Amino acid sequence: VFPSLAQAQASVANEVYKELGQPPVFLFCPTEYCSSLCSPSPSQSCYLQTIGQELLPGIGVIWTGPKVVSQELSGVLLEEVEAVLRRRPVIWDNLYANDYDCRRVFLGPYMGRAPGLMSRLHGLLLNPNCELQANFIPIHTLGTWFQSELGSCALPEHAGTWPLSPGSSDSQGAQDGSYSPQEALELALRDWVAEINQQALEPGR
After folding, report:
1. Residue 177 binned pLDDT confidence (cut-offs 50, 70, 90)
2. Would you call 28 helix, strand, or coil by DSSP?
3. How many CA atoms are closer than 13 Å to the CA of 187, on its beta-carbon side?
4. pTM for the full model?
């Protein structure tokens, strides 16, 4: 029925999206969801070109970056992806993921993401460590990064893309629009120690 896999996927996704009443959040994960899976590159991929052309504009497209687990995300790469998909991507960030290697637990701060990256994104999802307690620092420092990105967004249309969360960080970096992984880590560690001490005082602990 369809001349290509991409056209088949786009057609099915469009029909489901319309059947559900075109919800405000509807995500599509393409077969080529990172640069290393694209042939020969994201901008020259016939598959991604078709997805960008055929997929309805209200559907978000998931992207993990240069690789499935990307150590860095750059604005240049996201510009290329945005151009071929005809929309800003939703980053599915596997920086902390360890479901593929249970011996690996990442407790470091959120890092390797270029400043001003948020203006290139439609959203960001964090894939955490499988161990619940190990995600305090990853999620805490992601929040600090997010606050710094909100502070650095110069264009009003970018600010409206992301929901503002209640509360604010006392980190100077978040206030002045810069992000320091080391400062974010120290802030997270301070709050984590306080959380651990509070749990230790609870009955039955």
Report:
1. low
2. strand
3. 23
4. 0.83
Look-up of token digits 């902390």? 96
H/E element holding 137? helix 136-152
In this structure, is the dihedral angle defined by the CA atoms of residues 42, 143, 95 and 32, taken in order, positive or negative?
Answer: negative
Distance, in Å, from the CA atom of 144 to the CA atom of 17, rounded to the nearest integer, reads 34
Give yes or no for a contact between 124 and 96, defined as CB atoms under 8 angstroms apart: no
- Alpha-carbon distance of 205 to 112, in angstroms, equals 37
Place of tokens 């992601």: 142
For residue 61, the SS3 value is strand
Burial of 113-149, coded b for 16+ CB within 10 Å and e otherwise, reads beeebbbbbbbbebbbbeeeeebbbbebbbbbbbbbb
What distance in Å separates the CA atoms of residue 199 and residue 128, rounded to the nearest whole number?
22
Q: What DSSP assignment string belongs to 38-50? A: SSS-TTT-HHHHH
CB 187 within 8 A of CB 171: yes
**Superfamily (CATH) of domain 5-153+179-201:** Glycosidases (3.20.20.80)
For range 119-140, the mean pLDDT: 94
Amino acid identity at 96: Y
Q: pLDDT tens across 32-72, in order?
A: 999 999 989 999 999 999 999 999 999 999 999 999 999 99
- As given in the structure block, the two tokens for residue 79 are 């510009």
Cα 12 from Cα 196, distance rounded (Å): 47
